[in-house]
Amino acid sequence: MKAGNETSIARGKFAGSRFYPTIGFLSVFLLTFFLCTDKLFSQINILNQQNFDHNIDTALIYFPFHVRSQEELENKDAVPDAPRHISSDDLATTKQKYHWKGLIWQSLELNSIESVFRLADDDQIQTLLFNKPYWHDYIASLHQFNMGRWNDGDDFLINYVGHPMQGAVSGYIEIQNDPTGSRLEISRSSAYLKSRWYALLWSAAYSTQSEIGPFGEAALGNEGGWTYPLGCKRPCPEYQPGVTKYTNNTGWVDFIITPVVGELWIITEDTLDRYVSDRVQGDDRTRLFPKILRGSLNPSRTMANFLRWKNPWYRDWQHSAEAWNRAGDGIHFTPSDEQMQEMQNRPRWEIEPHFTAFSVAVNTPTCTNCRRVTSGVGAEFSYRLYRWLDADVDTTVQPNASPAPSDRAGGTLVSGVFGLRTGLDTENYALKLALRPGFVSFDNAYETSPNTDIPVPQQGQITHFTWNVAVSGDYRLSRHFAWRAELQNSVIRYRSAYVDPPGIGTPPYLSWLSHEYFVNRGNWVYQSGPVFRF
Prior knowledge:
Blueprint: H1 23-36, H2 38-52, E1 59-60, H3 70-74, H4 88-93, H5 100-121, H6 123-131, H7 134-143, H8 156-176, H9 190-212, E2 228-229, E3 246-247, H10 253-281, H11 288-297, H12 299-307, H13 321-327, E4 332-333, H14 337-345, E5 349-364, E6 367-386, E7 389-402, E8 411-425, E9 429-446, E10 459-478, E11 481-499, E12 505-506, E13 509-510, E14 516-533
Helix pairs in contact: 1-11, 1-12, 5-8, 8-9, 8-10, 8-12, 9-10, 10-11
């Protein structure tokens, strides 16, 4: 952000918060999509019942299905999809496990959708994310949060409709991963009140992360780190010092309103679900209109259902408690005992010494910042955390990659990336995707950019941040030996020669963010070598 300069970033209101008023439109889309595919789901459910009734312990499918009682199976005239409410005895006799993985994963999904929407909707956020130092500006933004006031400057629709809807969606995420709470309709029972209290707590935690967490608005968009006049876009001809108000978009309102009013929103949707949707639906779950009505009257639950790939009108209490507890998080079949044993016995550690070819911008006596393929060696280390997830570290050294210095490169290149890897893993082959942040360092580059005062800066070590995405394929020649080929792209962030003027600017446009700017460049990397497994 160029503080004090008319080209500086500024906003009229927090554009990214327009996400939640669009949920109504998303609910309509979800209803249309699932209604179009409802016939397909029904046929799949019938096939599930016919094919897997005899062996339901070993074959489970994700698509919603109704586990029929013995009386229903014997009565051919019974409606196959008629709801069967689960009694407390059913819950007591069925082993229940809280879906922690579902809770975390679905919350990350919601946060990702919100962040992508804000990023696509606001070019100012794009500039801050891609061209400014992320962690520095995140911490600087946190230091400027003003918790001595209630209002943050957003309008009524955003603060008192959009944010409560966010609270309701995050609350329903907690509810639908609770084996007891997900099966309760609104009542005065202690079980219902306890369930919705837990939803309130999770909604408060999610809301706090959305405001000040490392994946929230203080980090993505730097809420708090800069100011703008209320209701007036830059330049603001109506601005009068001491009269026109300006804000950095912080205050108590979102921290309190999101979970509290979101909880009231949940209770309202629960009330409509029981006393309107249930009565319209009756005992026939095959009719079209009740499905549309149920999904439309519960937009927050429709969104939460979407995050777990369920129909908008799906309700846990209309399905078998045993099926809920064992259906898991997706389409899967239970592995055999032999397969489980084989997975457990696979080597956990992998070490790959490798040759590396790195296409990167370097300097030669005849060309500055020219792309060139350098060669070197390195090693990759991985440890299997779960059957489908590895911790992964990769280091490379490219001797004298850049013979001449500049403010971006010079001397020997050393890189290191650290992250996670997942993918297909079989006895003979493996195909995996890795996402790893890290660094790229040069040992003999200019420590600062040349300028009129210092045309030849001092030389030394400089380090750039990088994001690395890699796809690797293994061919396993034996249990403890394989050969790997890997293709990577490392996006390196280079410090730009441009810096903002000193100071924090003048009202109403103040900025406490970094004065530095960065540019991003993608670089292809190929590496290959033997893999030792133990």
